[in-house]
Amino acid sequence: MKISFEQITCGRCNGAGSFSAYGNIMNGTCFGCGGSGTKLTRNGATAKRQIANILKERLGTPEEARTLMENMKGVTITD
To answer: 10 vs 71, which has greater pLDDT?
Structure first.
């Protein structure tokens, strides 16, 4: 099972993940997205936090967790 969270292109680096003009500072890595070129949307970040809390507490069965995740905004589940 793969869980994907809703993302958008980083507005600081426009999806590049780095800045060539700042190559001398951490190899130009964008601090807005950490070099990935994307950032979580508000829904995606909220869903990720909720899932992390659920997994941390280990509540319910895997089926219950999957049902809960499917009902959250910003989450995509693929097998």
So the answer is: 10
